[in-house]
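We close this part of the discussion by returning to an individual protein. Part of our work consisted of pairing the sequence of a single chain with a tokenised description of its backbone. The amino acid sequence and the backbone structure tokens for this protein are reproduced below.
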Amino acid sequence: MRVASLSLFALVLGWAAHAVAQDHDAVKPVPKDGNWMKRHDAFNARIKMGNVDLLFIGDSITDAWSGPGKAVWAEKYAKRNAVNLGIGGDRTQHVLWRLDNGNIEGIKPKLAVIMIGTNNAGSGQNTSEQIADGITAIVKKLRDKLPETKILLLGIFPRGADDNDPKRQLNMKANEIVAKLADGKMVEYLDIGPKFLDDKRVLSKEVMPDLLHLTPAAYQTWADSIEAHVARMMGEAK
């Protein structure tokens, strides 16, 4: 009996420790105001129109498919009934709120591509483990709300000049954790970060002028690097 009691105590203690570990802002859905809410409402209006087979979910790096990545988007994704759900400045908690408030309501996309988390690192408020918690919560929410939708989870892109950059280190460690979310069936993990770096893992300003946001050529690299996965996961590959 004593052994059983100790085992139960350890189980409860472990659960409590896990709960405390996740009690942070990266997993607590929260909106913004002003223009952010207008963008959110515009997304909802588009979603209500239906005809959505492919989602891109993220922050300003995803948002800029409508800027520097516009030509590549038109070539690669417009014909796939793709919708861009990226908003500049978003952290994991903002995406979680959007997913709860209309951004995926009433649709059954074939695939969702996620790339989120670098603003959690940039805020200086979250550890790698907390960033990973936020990404995990997003993946879980998508699986719960869109059970027929496959997920291509991208590793957070490199930022900063090299691997010594503290924010890049946060992202790299978060990537190591969320890579384990791949289940071999509905969720795949893909890190295309090395595609943006040279052989010494240095990030050039020709690729990302501010060492964070992509040039038009880098959006082409992004599209080319995920194309085989997108085609297969959407059922296009023969």
User: Anything to note?
Assistant: Confidence is low (pLDDT under 50) at residues 1-21. The beta strands are 54-58, 82-86, 111-115, 150-154, 187-190. The first helix runs from residue 2 to 21. The longest strand covers residues 54-58.
